[in-house]
Specification:
This protein is of the alpha+beta class. The chain is built from six helices and nine strands; from the N terminus they run αβαααααββββββββ. The protein has a domain of 174 residues. The longest helix is centred in the middle third of the chain and has 24 residues.
Length: 293
């Protein structure tokens, strides 16, 4: 036994034995735990209602009356009075109180005793269709021109009254007087002729329709007619107009908007960290048990 120990000691001394024993034990434990919870709710409700109603009612009513002034003009009444009172030249013209007819100018086939001259009628018809000169069919051609002039004068005086709303037996309106003088000059220096009938006479630029309501035209201007004198109309126009308009407009707009927003956020962060550290250290030395010699 002693021998074994000595051998063992000898062996250990060869290696310079200083035996130490270290023992370390480390243990780490760590746990991280994170829990996240997010919840978001958005609710949008939108309602838009629009309503437009438009109603329009319109009515128009017009009444027009044209009244011929020729039967009501004060100038005509005054002219008739001048004819009856013997004032010249109106008493000789007699355009209103005794209008001339073709027979007054020997342009008819009346014998004057109630009988008809057939030969004269045929001649006048042929003469009218052939546009004979008046002096070829009657000796009263100058009287016919005078009647032309009377009607022209009457038309000018009536037109003057219409323009001024005041009658005058003297023609003083410059515009009307100028037209009358052109007409009278042309009439005096022109020949007259029949134009298709014994009632339709043309003298230069003037045309006369002989009738109880004579019609005189000069250079396409109506000097005397039922309601026009020297281009001026004697018609009085009365217009009555009624217009009714009803407009109804209705607009309705309704808008409803609802927005509900709910946001819920839950964040849970759980962190668990566990650290366990265990250390054990053991130092063992045999040298103190070994003999030194």
């Amino acid at each position: 036994m002693k021998k074994i120990i000595i051998l063992l000691a000898f062996s250990l001394s060869l290696f310079g034995v200083d035996q130490s024993q270290n023992s370390n034990s480390n243990q780490d434990y760590k746990e991280d735990k994170t829990v996240g919870y997010n919840k978001s709710i958005n609710v949008n409700n939108s309602k838009d209602t629009s309503e437009d109603n438009s109603k329009t009612k319109e009515s128009s009513y017009t009444v027009s009356h044209d009244l011929a002034k020729i039967e009501q003009t004060s100038a005509l009444i005054v002219l008739m009075a001048l004819e009856k009172t013997g004032i010249q030249p109106f008493a000789s013209c007699k355009v209103l109180t005794r209008p001339s007819l073709p027979r007054d100018f020997d342009l008819s086939c009346d014998n004057g005793d109630g009988r008809v001259n057939e030969g004269r009628c045929n001649f006048l018809n042929n003469a009218a269709n052939s546009n004979f000169s008046i002096d070829k069919v009657t000796y009263l051609d100058e009287e016919l021109k005078g009647y032309f002039a009377c009607i022209g004068l009457y038309g000018a005086l009536i037109a003057q009254d219409m323009k001024r709303d005041k009658f005058s037996a003297i023609l003083t309106d410059k515009e009307l007087l100028k037209t009358f003088r052109f007409f009278a000059y042309d009439l005096e220096n022109s020949d007259c002729r029949l134009n298709g009938s014994t009632t339709h006479i043309i003298c230069g630029a003037s045309t006369l329709n002989i009738s109880p309501k004579p019609d005189l035209i000069y250079s396409n201007i109506s000097l005397y007619s039922d309601n026009t004198f020297y281009g001026y109309s004697s018609s009085v126009s009365r217009n009555k107009s009624k217009r009714q308009a009803n407009s109804f407009s209705f607009s309705k707009s309704k808008k409803k908007s609802k927005s509900n927003a709910m946001a819920k956020s839950i964040n849970t962060n759980k962190s668990t960290s566990t650290a366990i550290s265990k250390a054990a250290s053991s130092n063992l030395s045999l040298s103190k048990f070994l003999p030194t010699d």
